What we know:
Helices cover 44% and strands 18% of the residues. The chain is α/β, with parallel strands linked by helices. The strands form 4 sheets. A 6-stranded mixed β-sheet has the order 3-4-14-9-10-13, sandwiched between helices. The protein folds into 2 domains: 27-56 and 95-209, Rossmann fold (3-Layer(aba) Sandwich), CATH 3.40.50.1100; 62-92 and 215-396, Rossmann fold. It has helices at 27-43, 47-61, 71-77, 95-108, 122-134, 144-149, 151-159, 174-188, 205-213, 215-228, 243-249, 278-281, 319-326, 337-351, 357-372, 390-396; strands spanning 16-17, 20-21, 67-69, 80-85, 113-118, 137-143, 163-167, 192-194, 234-238, 259-267, 283-287, 290-294, 330-336, 377-382.
Amino acid sequence: METKKIINILPTKEGFFGEYGGQFLPEGLKAEFDKITEAFLKYKDDPIFNKELNDLFKYYAGRPSPVYHCKNLSQKYGAEIYLKREDLNHTGAHKINHCLGEALLAKKMGKKKIIAETGAGQHGVATATAAALMGLECDVYMGEIDIEKAKPNVDRMRILGANIIPVSEGTRTLKEAVDAAFNAYTKEYETAIYAIGSVVGPHPFPMMVEHFQSIIGKEAREQMLDLTGSLPDHIVACVGGGSNSIGLFSGFLDDESVKIYGAEPLGKGDKLGDNAASITYGKKGILHGFKCLLLQDENGNAANAYSVASGLDYPGVGPKHCYLHDIGRVNYETISDIEAVRAFYELSRTEGIIPALESSHAVALGLKLAETFQGDKILINLSGRGDKDIEFVMKNYPLK
């Protein structure tokens, strides 16, 4: 498919990126989402709001996160490999970027509580952190399986004062956590805000989360120019819902010389229920109030999704990702559980950096590209650190 020129892609007034996105809501919620949209559009260009947020990014979250040249991996694989180190942010992942933005917006709107869902726990930790900082209550919905897999993050959330609400329905993972959180929000929207954890959900959340995450791409673009004198040839990020990836991609969409790749979770294979590769295997459908490419069963309902990385096992994907796929600007490829775990160990043992299993999907795809494009510059978004995954990996994929 021929790539089209991309210039500052924004959603329509109704929240659509091409055919995807929008706002499919119960009538009672539409007025509240209109208020959120109005508040976001007001504050995103407000100098006082932006100074407050930028100060939080710099002095609280530790931005800018560095770009690191992986000399050992580069020598081994034959391409120049760089990492955007979002794992070094406060709370250990990119999630703090939009959580600080959403919590600050909630405070400006006079809300008293943040409601959130989480899979791997990184969004939950970042939300709990931002809520503690802003003096807000925090309810985090999390599937029972994910609670067991990511116990260190569950403990962190509780220490930070969050109320963890286990979800026992369905697969007891991320989709059901979103279901439960959204249902709770419909009963408390007058005093609470739902801090969605990715570029998914009804308008304006895909646009809003991207806005706060776009700092990744802005920094990375400048850093690569400063460090190497030119832009990377390839950029790579993992894609579940798609917040870390859209944050990185946003800084390079206009640069036609830069090839962009999203690593989707193939899980255990291409059979329905064995993966969470929504763009690769999904069909158009509506989930959680927005239209996207969606893994569906024979009845058209959202199918069970699976990935070794809890933060990626969502059956849908952000609407802008769907649009970028359709126009051919981003190449979405799949990485299996085994490939991700191998990359987890490879980065750990070669560079001394333990990545999150989510980020390991991007690392795996980046290493594949390195073997193909010898001598090229490849920038990988290391969206989070692997502390939360160590116990799970050692138990299920032990060292040999």
